[in-house]
Structure formats: structure tokens, C-alpha cells
Design brief:
- The structure holds two protein chains of two kinds.
- Chain A contains eleven helices and five strands; from the N terminus they run βααβαβαβααβααααα.
- Chain A is an alpha/beta fold.
- In chain A, strands 2-1-3-4-5 form a five-stranded parallel sheet, sandwiched between helices.
- Chain A is globular and about 60 Å long.
- In chain B, helix 9 runs parallel beside helix 10.
- Chain B contains 15 helices and 28 strands.
- Chain B has a five-stranded parallel sheet with strand order 8-7-6-12-23. A five-stranded parallel sheet of chain B has the order 14-21-15-16-17.
- In chain B, a hairpin with a 6-residue loop joins strand 26 and strand 27 (530-533).
- By secondary structure, chain B is of the alpha/beta class.
- Classes of the chains: A alpha/beta, B alpha/beta.
């Protein structure tokens, strides 16, 4: 029996397109899913324009997926438009949920970002910030949830194809999407011995014991602070968890802070030594969640205060 | 529970006489409190802890139908139990009380800044009110106490404690590492202030403790494992000679592990001649050989005693403290042997014969022409050994002259330091140590003898350098505390413990590693296994809740919600007084 296709829309803010790639990565299962979809908007795949989306009646689209964060004014517009047109709006992927890797740009102010991107960098000098034919850039990256309310958060960098299938199937069937709340550790087969770490090892150092907890061997693994929707695919293949699914529910938690206080338990090291062995704490602990973290929120507030005082 | 009902908060700001009100504008603080959300009553009062203050709280709870009480006064260490009792008497759960420390945290430490102090007090009260609104009542729990005490250490302190407890009708298990009871003291020839040898003092006590029907003595033995919680400990005692182990169940513990006489390293040529010895070594020599030179057996005619060896050295870890027994011990020793030798010279930095009857020994020694000479702190006496002969050179502060002396023996009054293995004892019983290396009591003034491990007491030189007189006072005090717990038969335990939200736990083991009290283990009977907190072992420190990377641990009475409410209240600018509803 063939059900009536359901109107869906895929919006893309500033991002790498990896999440939608993961959607396409369903392979043969696409054959099952695609006939169920009436794609109303998807910039890179179907030939609808933004004005088409703008002209649909409000809430006429059943499910919308928004990938990426809102770096440009156009992103913000699209995000709000998606909310307006879709009954169920999904924050699709880690950038959309927490700000993601592009959100790390908030660690610098916008002028510094322009310098590196457009004006002066290792391969280029004397450039100008382009203004023509491009949407203006937002001074800071706000988490998408500052602009709109989402119905569902589906994190991951990218969300796994299995997870996407599960989510889309449930949504199309109009069922409640139930996701387990476990962290990555739950899925990790490695043995724990609760031993302190004598020193932090960078991933390229030494040979890790394949059967023991990577963290306890000195490799920083954020598995315990990370939502395990990936079902532990990295840690069971011998790679530390970098935290790409963000914090476990309630996802308003601060993943970076949680990971650091967790590490404090395992690595009772001198602060100086720790500083030396973890050269980039922001990139290590907040790689995917900086804009939505408490620390990141303070930074956003500071930038906005600065802007307000300049005006 | 009270979670749903609208908070009705009463705020009571204490003057503490002049202690708080002399610095903080308590009237302004109380006025300000009235403007805070959910506050229906606020006032200031001379002494909240007085009968009148307590009655005021009870009255206002009834009058205003208060369901939360905030008292801004001293440290909760001081009066939290008092106020918890008061609100309980008025029908409120004790965990609906919140205390703000305006004394130790504000007026005492910012005495010269009244304006800023008042502002800080206002901030703290605002935070406490925000937290109070989020407080929830918790059930009051109690556990049974096994009527038996484990005493670790069979010196004079341990023996005294064991006898005190056993004489009151409770059983004692006394564990001593050495083959014989008696510790350091039994080996000493002279013990102040009584004019007796250690053996004479301790002999009868040792005999009595050994034959006491309620005391089991384990010599050559150590506690090899220790588990459980107040009232319900299990100790494993290992005999080091036979290797046999036995488990005993006890309700309370007294740690009386004592001290070790410091063996000087690089002091006054110690180790270069048998004629240079510590005071402890001197006292442990057989009586008939006491005044014979160890090197050649010749009678001793001239003696030099040097004070503060390994004590009172600022900046030297573990040797900064005054050992508190040496000055009197040296004075007594010098006075005792003065008539048998030609010359006794005491070289000292300061003389501190502070205790009852101690100054009399100092006076007696001087009366018997013991020569006292003060050396400068920065320029200690020089001792050299050449051809078996000893030479002491020093600068005398009072005369300003340099002296040289050739004694037959030199006695070094060396420091009291913690005994070997104190690290293991600290770990096993969950005790903390101060900079001098000895164990910390729960609070030096407000909770002496008890420790942060409920049910475990410390006594004697396990706590700090002190003399035997003081040690036995400790012993009786600790025994009284142990008996107090056992006589009641039941103790209330704090309900402020950690709780695992099992649905959120992913078995990452972080909390197991984080818990300093070994109170968390994985419950393997669950599938998947989840962390489990043994409430009675939990001290409510919150380390696990902070460390838990998935917020699966709820720290009762310090929930994230309560803490964030305080942080938010702090960061929210204070509304103007009289500026309407906040």
C-alpha cells in the first residue's frame, strides 16, 4: 500500500552539507523512504527557490530539517522561515543543535575572523571583506535555538544514517521519536579499572590497549559526556570520542564543562602540566558545542555588549 | 512533599551582638530581604541563637505560615543544628532551613570595609533566598550502632580510651602493631609531670586492659581493611606474625596511632658518633647505663641538650610545628640528672614550658644550676666530632658571647612527627592531614576528636604533637564520644546524599573514581549496570554529581537547580530597595 507522500523541506544554513550527505548515505533504504516524501524545498537537490518556500502557506510542510548554523543574515531568515512553514522542525545535525565546529569562531571577534578569512593569512595578504552579492555576516554565532524553537534535536557530526532512518520513519508515521539517553560509554566495549591518568597522551602517541578504556590510558575521550546516538562507533574502532553528538539529554547541559570536570577525576595532574598536555582546551572540550555552552553564552553576551557600546 | 507549594520565606538577620552588626548594616540587609521574591517576612535580631531568637523563628513560622526559613548569622558549622531543630519544632522539615554566614564570611574577614561588607551580605542573602525557594524537604534517616569500638594503637592514648569504653560496658577491640602494648611512653625512663618511669605508669594499665573481659587485644597486628559506615563498620585485622586475618564488626573507631620521635638528618652531627643521641634514645637506655658514654662506657660528666631539633622551622614541610613536649622533657631530664654529673648545658631557641606543673621543672632545673643558653634562630650551634671527642660551638644571645664546650654526650630534643604508615591509615579511614602531617579533627574548636568520617575519632598524638597528659585527656574525650554514639544505639545520618538517576547513567565509572569515600559502586545486577550510591557511606560532598558528565547524579540538598538559582541570583543586579516587586 502506498501512502500519500508527505510534504517535507530541507533547509541549509552555513554548514558543510555533511548531514544531508549522511541522509543520502542511506543507500538502498532511500528507495523505501523517497517515495514517502514530497520534497517542497531543498536548495541543493530540487529546483525550488527561496521565494517558493516563502510563498507556501504557513505550517503547510509537515517536517522540516534545518542543517547548519546561522552565520549570515540569510541563514537567520531561512531558519525563521522554516519554522514558520513547518509543523515539525528538526535541528538536523550538531551545528544546528549546538553551533558546531563553525561556532568555534565565536572565540574570536568578527574582525579577527575577517582578517584570517579575507584580509591576511598564510597564503594571502591585502584582501578585502567581500560585500557584493553576499548576505551580511552575523557578528556572532547564536545557537539556532535562540532564533526559533525546535521540536526535535537530532545531533551528530553527522547524524548516522541509521539514526536518520529511524527518525524520519517515526516522523512520517506520526509516531513519537524515542531516543535512548545513554552516553557513548554505554556502547563502549572497553574495560574500566578506575585508575588515574599519569599523563595525557595525544592521539598519535603510544599504542593503545584495544581492550581498555581509552581515557584511562591517557587519551582524552569525551564518550562519557557525549550523547551516544552514534552507538559508540568510534570508540569500538579504537578512536577516542571527540564529542560530536553533544551532551546527553537534557541537552541543555554544558558538555565541555562536564567533560573537564570528568577529566579532573581521572587526571589529578598539576595545572601547569595539564595546560602543557592539553594545548587546545577549547577545541578539545567545546569543539561542537561552544556557542550553546555557558562559556560560549558569556562570550556571545560580551561581543553583543561590545557592539552595543560601539553603536 | 513541599515542591509544589508556593514558597513563603522568612529571613532572620542576626546582629551576633557586635560581631556582625558592628560591620554589616544588618537593618539594611533585613529591609532589602523584604524586597526579594517569596519573602513574606524579614527582620533583624540581636542573637538569633538565643532562646528569644529561637522563639522568634517559631512564632513567625506560625504567624506568617512560613515554609522556608533563612537565618543570616554565623557559620552553619556553628548553628545549623540549632536552627534545624528550631524549624523542626515548628513543624518544618529540617532541610527547608537555609543559613547564610555573615560572620566568618563577611564581618570578621572584611572588618574595615563596612559598606562593601553590607553589599556582600545583601548578595549572599539574595542567593540564599533564591536557593531556599528551591529547597525540598528530605526524610530524616537513622541507622543502628554496633556496640563495639575499634581502637587503633596501643599506646597510652589507646589503652586509656579502651579502658574508659570497656568500663562503661561496651566492647573494645584494641589493635597494636608492635609485639607489646605501651607505645612510646612505656620505653621512657622519666615521664613528666609525675616522677615515674613509663613502665611504672603504664604497667598497671596494660595489665588491666589485657585482662579486661570486654577488651580483645591484638598485638603484632594491623587493620588491613576497613569498610562500612557509622555504626556499622567492618574491620579486617591482620596478624603480621602469623598472617592470619580476622574480621570484626564495630560501631565506632578511635584512631590513636601516635607519633614517632624524629630521627634527625643533617642536624648537629647526628649519626657521626654514638654519643650524640635523641632525647627518646637517651630515655630508652637501660637505667644503669644511662650515664655511661655509649662509645666507651666511661661515666658521663658533661652533657649538652639541644632544643627544637626538627621543630619550629618555618618553610620546612612537616617541621614547622612546635613539638610541645620537648622543653619540659628536657627541663625535667636535666633537673633529674644534674646531681649525678658535673655540668648540664641546655641550648635552646625559646623555652616553652607552658603546661600545668611544667614551669616548675624549668625552675627546678635552673635552681639546680643547669645552664641555659639561648642561641639565635638563624645561627644554630655547631657540633663537630674529632677523634671521638665532641665539640659544641654556639653564640649566646643574652651575653653576646661565643662559647665552646666539650661534652661527653649530646642529647637532641627531636620533634614529634607522624609515624610510618600514616598515609595508609589516612586512606583507610578517610582522614585528612594538616601540614604537620598529623590527622585533622572535624573542626579544631567546634568538633574536636571527631573526624570527617562519621563514627571515627582521633585522639592523642595522632592529631598533633602533644604530651602524655594531654593525650589521655583526648583519649577519655574520644571514648566519651564513642560511648555516646553506642549508648544511643541509633544515629541519625544526613539525608543530603547523592542519588543516581538510573535512566541517565551510562556506566562510565567517573563517579566511582571520583568518590573520596568509596561510596559508589557499579550495580552489576542491573542490566545495563548502573552506578549505585550506598547512602550511609555518602558524605554528601557532591564530587560525584559535579564529575558526572551526563548529569545522572542528583546531589540532594545541593541540586544543580538549587546551585544555579544561587548563581543566577548573584549575577542578577540587585533591585532598588523600595522599588516595588522584584
Amino acid at each position: 500500500m502506498m501512502a500519500e507522500p508527505i510534504p517535507v523541506a530541507m533547509g541549509q544554513g552555513s554548514s558543510c552539507w555533511g548531514c544531508f550527505q549522511s541522509l543520502v548515505d542511506m543507500h538502498l533504504r532511500l528507495a523505501d523512504v523517497l517515495p514517502l516524501l514530497d520534497i517542497k524545498y531543498w536548495q541543493a537537490v530540487v529546483d525550488y527557490k527561496l521565494e517558493d518556500l516563502e510563498n507556501y502557506p504557513d505550517k503547510s510542510i509537515v517536517v522540516g530539517l534545518y542543517e547548519g548554523m546561522a552565520r549570515t543574515e540569510e541563514d537567520v531568515h531561512l531558519l525563521k522561515l522554516m519554522r514558520q512553514k513547518c509543523k515539525v522542525l528538526v535541528a538536523f545535525g550538531t551545528c544546528s543543535c549546538y553551533g558546531g565546529i563553525p561556532g568555534l569562531a565565536n572565540a574570536w571577534d568578527i574582525e579577527e575572523c575577517y582578517d584570517v578569512k579575507f584580509r591576511e593569512n598564510k597564503t594571502f595578504s591585502g584582501g578585502k571583506v567581500p560585500t557584493e552579492n553576499l548576505p551580511p555576516i552575523e557578528p556572532v554565532v547564536h545557537p539556532n535555538s535562540d532564533y526559533v524553537d525546535f521540536d526535535i534535536y537530532l545531533p551528530g557530526c553527522p547524524p548516522t544514517s541509521d539514526l536518520i532512518v529511524k527518525a524520519i520513519t517515526a516522523l512520517l508515521e506520526g509516531k513519537e521519536l524515542e531516543l535512548p539517553t545513554y552516553t557513548v560509554c554505554h556502547y563502549c566495549p572497553r574495560e574500566k579499572k578506575e585508575t588515574p591518568i599519569p599523563e595525557i597522551l595525544r592521539p598519535f602517541r603510544g599504542n593503545a590497549d584495544p581492550d581498555r578504556c581509552l581515557l584511562e590510558q591517557g587519551y582524552i575521550c569525551l564518550g562519557s559526556a557525549t550523547w551516544g546516538l552514534c552507538e559508540g562507533q568510534c570508540v569500538s574502532k579504537g578512536v577516542t570520542c571527540r564529542g560530536c553528538f553533544g551532551p546527553p539529554p537534557p541537552i541543555t547541559q554544558d558538555q565541555g564543562a562536564a567533560a573537564m570536570s570528568m577529566l579532573g577525576t581521572y587526571a589529578p595532574l598539576e595545572p601547569e602540566k595539564l595546560k602543557e598536555q592539553v594545548p587546545d582546551p577549547l577545541g578539545c572540550f567545546y569543539r561542537f558545542t561552544y556557542p550553546s555552552s555557558r562559556l560560549g553564552r558569556m562570550r556571545i553576551r560580551r561581543e553583543e555588549l561590545k557592539e552595543a557600546s560601539e553603536e | 512533599m513541599t515542591a509544589q507549594e508556593e514558597p513563603r520565606i522568612g529571613v532572620f538577620v542576626c546582629h551576633c551582638g557586635h560581631n556582625i552588626a558592628g560591620v554589616v548594616d544588618v537593618v539594611r540587609v533585613a529591609e532589602y530581604a523584604k524586597s526579594l521574591p517569596h519573602v513574606v517576612f524579614a527582620t533583624d535580631e540581636m542573637f538569633m541563637c538565643s532562646d528569644a531568637g529561637q522563639q522568634l523563628i517559631r512564632d513567625k513560622i506560625a504567624e506568617y505560615d512560613l515554609n522556608r526559613v533563612v537565618v543570616a548569622s554565623c557559620s552553619p558549622r556553628m548553628h545549623e543544628p540549632t536552627f534545624r531543630r528550631v524549624v523542626e519544632e515548628a513543624g518544618l522539615n529540617r532541610y527547608l532551613f537555609e543559613q547564610v554566614n555573615l560572620r566568618e564570611h563577611v564581618s570578621w574577614c572584611h572588618m574595615r570595609e563596612p559598606e562593601l561588607s553590607t553589599e556582600k551580605a545583601i548578595d549572599l542573602v539574595r542567593m540564599a533566598v533564591a536557593r531556599a525557594a528551591k529547597l525540598e524537604g528530605l526524610p530524616v534517616k537513622s541507622v543502628k550502632v554496633t556496640p563495639r569500638t575499634l581502637v587503633v594503637g596501643g599506646g597510652i592514648t589507646g589503652i586509656r580510651a579502651a579502658l574508659d569504653i570497656a568500663d562503661r560496658g561496651f566492647e573494645v577491640v584494641l589493635v597494636e602493631r608492635e609485639p607489646k602494648l605501651g607505645g612510646n611512653l612505656v620505653k621512657w625512663n622519666h615521664v613528666f609531670p609525675v616522677d615515674k618511669s613509663g613502665k611504672k605508669i603504664l604497667g598497671p594499665l596494660i595489665k588491666r586492659v589485657k585482662s579486661h573481659e570486654r577488651v580483645r587485644v591484638f598485638t603484632n597486628s594491623e587493620v588491613s581493611d576497613f569498610d562500612g559506615y557509622i555504626g556499622n563498620f567492618v574491620a579486617t585485622i591482620r596478624n603480621n606474625k602469623t598472617g592470619k586475618e580476622e574480621q570484626v564488626e564495630v560501631g565506632t573507631v578511635i584512631i590513636a596511632t601516635g607519633f614517632k620521635a624524629y630521627e634527625p638528618v643533617e642536624y648537629y652531627a647526628y649519626g657521626q658518633s654514638p654519643d650524640i643521641m635523641t632525647l627518646a634514645e637517651f630515655h630508652q637506655r637501660p637505667g644503669d647505663e644511662l650515664l655511661k658514654r655509649p662509645s666507651d662506657g666511661r661515666p658521663v660528666k658533661k652533657i649538652v641538650c639541644i632544643g627544637c631539633v626538627g621543630s619550629r622551622e618555618p618553610g620546612k614541610q612537616g617541621h614547622e610545628h612546635c613539638s610541645r613536649y620537648c622543653c619540659t622533657a628536657v627541663a625535667k631530664t636535666a633537673a633529674d640528672i644534674r646531681s649525678d654529673v658535673e655540668e648540664v648545658v641546655v641550648l635552646y631557641q625559646d623555652v616553652r614550658t607552658y603546661g600545668k606543673g611544667h614551669e616548675e621543672f624549668h625552675r627546678l632545673a635552673r635552681l639546680r644550676y643547669v645552664m641555659y643558653s639561648k642561641f639565635p634562630r638563624e645561627e644554630k650551634p655547631q657540633v663537630t666530632v674529632a677523634d671521638g671527642e665532641l665539640t659544641v660551638k654556639w653564640h649566646d644571645v643574652l651575653s653576646g658571647d661565643d662559647f665552646e664546650f666539650h661534652p661527653d654526650i649530646i642529647v637532641l630534643a627531636s620533634a614529634m612527627v607522624p609515624p610510618d604508615g600514616i598515609d595508609d591509615v589516612a586512606k583507610m579511614f578517610g582522614l585528612t592531614r594538616s601540614a604537620d602531617g598529623f590527622f585533622n579533627p572535624e573542626h579544631i574548636k567546634l568538633a574536636p576528636l571527631t573526624t570527617h568520617t562519621a563514627g571515627v575519632m582521633i585522639a592523642g598524638t595522632a592529631q598533633a604533637a602533644k604530651n602524655a597528659t594531654e593525650s589521655v585527656v583526648d583519649a577519655s574525650g574520644a571514648a566519651a564520644k564513642a560511648v555516646g554514639l553506642m549508648a544511643r544505639g541509633e544515629v541519625e545520618i544526613e539525608s543530603t546524599t547523592a542519588q543516581v538517576i538510573e535512566d541517565l547513567c551510562s556506566s562510565c565509572h567517573t563517579c566511582v573514581a571520583a568518590c573520596p569515600y568509596g561510596a559508589i559502586a557499579m550495580d552489576e545486577s542491573k542490566d545495563p549496570p548502573v552506578a549505585h550510591v550506598t547512602s550511609a557511606k555518602c558524605h554528601g560532598c557532591g564530587t560525584c554529581a559535579a564529575a558526572c558528565p551526563s548529569s545522572a547524579i542528583l546531589m540532594l540538598h545541593s541540586t544543580d537547580e538549587q546551585i544555579m538559582a544561587m548563581v543566577e541570583a548573584f549575577l542578577t543586579p540587585a533591585p532598588e530597595i523600595g522599588g516595588g516587586e522584584a
